[in-house]
Design goal:
Length: 352
């Protein structure tokens, strides 16, 4: 009896495992070189956002170098406007938040003391009083930690100024040598699968580019709407809360809830009334309703169609590994893996 010969595509699975291991090594290297990778990713995202403008200028007959020079002139004007008007407003809002932080902590202490005094001496009141006393004793530690966090956040922003200064230089060369890099990388690919890999890369590029440009547009719109709404309601630190809401919109599913927390916090401590809480919640509900049913369908031409569970896992894993950049790029990376895996299952990587 001769056993039937079963052919297993070992080469294909070996390449797939090698690809996964390569991604893991890149993730480990990214974690070890966080600051360098952060600067590179910032430049890469900016280049990704600006490249369509340069391409359209080239289609109108303008050389790429001249298109880049014109683009940088426009961006310089916008940067001057940003530094003149927007940055001072954000700085004032941040300094006001830092100065008011001890006041908020003291109000927490007062609320705990008043709650303890009003608590009836029954139904486990001793245990509840012990919890309140423990919270009151630790309030100063909480204040010190909050202050240290705020100072550390500001310090990180200061040291990231190096990235902000270096990024325009990297962006210029990324955009200028884009085609050269594409041709060089394409020449390294195997002849038998080069066309298929380039086709998949274009699909991934379209998905990632559409998401990044769309998400930046959505975040800016949400930040502007939230800031205007909070200014109208008279809630403290509207610029800080608006910027936080725009950044939180990056998070899928839970970003809507997280975005409202600072605004609700400041609204309660200024007015201490339920009506202003209701107004704040209503405002954010309207903003995110418009974002979900009007803005995103217009901005995102194509949906990534990712599984919600996979989306949450990718955001958590990459956020833990790469911080902010991991959260921002989690969905594009998941989409790229999905597209590549779909072609792998269809046998598109087999040698023909």
């Amino acid at each position: 009896m001769h056993s039937p010969h079963v052919h297993l595509p070992r080469n294909d699975y070996g390449r797939f495992i090698a690809t996964i291991l390569t991604f893991c090594l890149l993730a480990m290297a990214g974690y070890a070189l966080q600051h360098t990778i952060s600067c590179f990713l910032l430049s890469w995202v900016i280049a990704y956002l600006l490249d369509p403008i340069v391409v359209k200028a080239e289609q109108r007959g303008l050389k790429r170098l001249y298109a880049l020079i014109l683009l940088y002139v426009v961006l310089s004007i916008l940067t001057i406007f940003f530094l003149t008007f927007i940055v001072p407003a954000l700085t004032i809002s941040w300094n006001s938040f830092i100065n008011d932080l001890p006041v908020y902590i003291e109000k927490f202490r007062q609320i705990g003391i008043e709650s303890k005094d009003r608590l009836p001496d029954r139904y486990g009141a001793d245990e509840i009083q012990w919890l309140i006393d423990a919270g009151a004793r630790n309030i100063n530690t909480a204040a010190e930690k909050a202050g240290s966090w705020a100072y550390g956040f500001g310090t990180r922003i200061f040291f990231n100024l190096f990235n902000i200064v270096l990024s325009p230089i990297l962006v210029f060369f990324m955009l200028y040598y884009k085609q050269t890099v594409i041709v060089t990388v394409a020449s390294w690919l195997p002849d038998g699968s080069r066309d298929q890999i380039i086709k998949i890369a274009r699909e991934v590029n379209s998905s990632i580019g559409g998401y990044l440009r769309g998400q930046v547009a959505v975040s800016i719109i949400v930040a502007i709407f939230a800031t205007i709404a909070l200014l109208t309601l008279g809630i403290p630190h509207p610029f800080f809360c608006g910027a936080f809401a725009g950044a939180a919109s990056i998070l899928p599913f839970i970003g809507v809830i997280i975005a409202t927390l600072p605004a609700l916090f400041f609204a309660w401590f200024k007015f201490q009334a339920l009506d202003i809480i209701g107004q704040t919640i209503s405002v954010f509900a309207i903003i995110y309703f418009v974002e979900g049913y009007v803005i995103k369908p217009l901005v995102f031409k194509e949906s990534m169609n990712l599984n919600p569970l996979v989306t949450i896992i990718m955001v958590m894993a990459l956020g833990e590994t790469l911080g902010f950049w991991g959260i921002l790029l989690a969905l594009p990376i998941a989409s790229a893996i999905k597209i590549t895996w779909g072609h792998f299952l269809n046998g598109d990587f087999k040698q023909r």
